[in-house]
Amino acid sequence: MNPTLLEIIQTHGNRTESTCYCELTPSLVPTGKAELKEGFYFLLVTNGTAQLANEYQTYELQPSHLVALTPSVRSTIQAMSSHFQSMLLYLKPTFFDSLPDGQPLYEQLAHYLGHYQLPVFLLENEQATYLQKIFALFSPCRNNAANYYDSILNHLCSFCLLQIADILTQIRHEVPDYARRSTDIFRLFKKTLMENYRQHHDIGFYAESLHISTTYLSRIVKHITGHTVRFHISELLCADARKLLECTDLDIKEIAEKLGFSDQSVFGKFFVKKTGVSPMKFRTQRERDKKNYPFPNA
Question: Does 290 have pLDDT greater than 80?
Answer without folding.
Answer: no
